[in-house]
Amino acid sequence: MINGFLLGVIATEFMISGVFFLRFWRVTKDRFFLAFAASFLVEGLNRCAFLLVDKPSEGSPWIYLVRLFTFLMILLAILRKNYRSSR
What we know:
Elements lengths: L1 H27 L2 H22 L8 H26 L1
């Protein structure tokens, strides 16, 4: 029961972080913040889906594929921002 609670807290934190970055994107219209917001929201939804699975396994390849996707989104946003700044 405590594992479900803590996983819910983590999912909520990811969602709050996503909304936080979405607010910055609305103000600046910078895609950097949009990529961060999307990444955190996807990760929050991933954690929520993990709560709904009957027998969750942290070693599932699908969980790591979603995490890889979100980390790549952040990495590409950072690289794109730095590449544009250097010109």
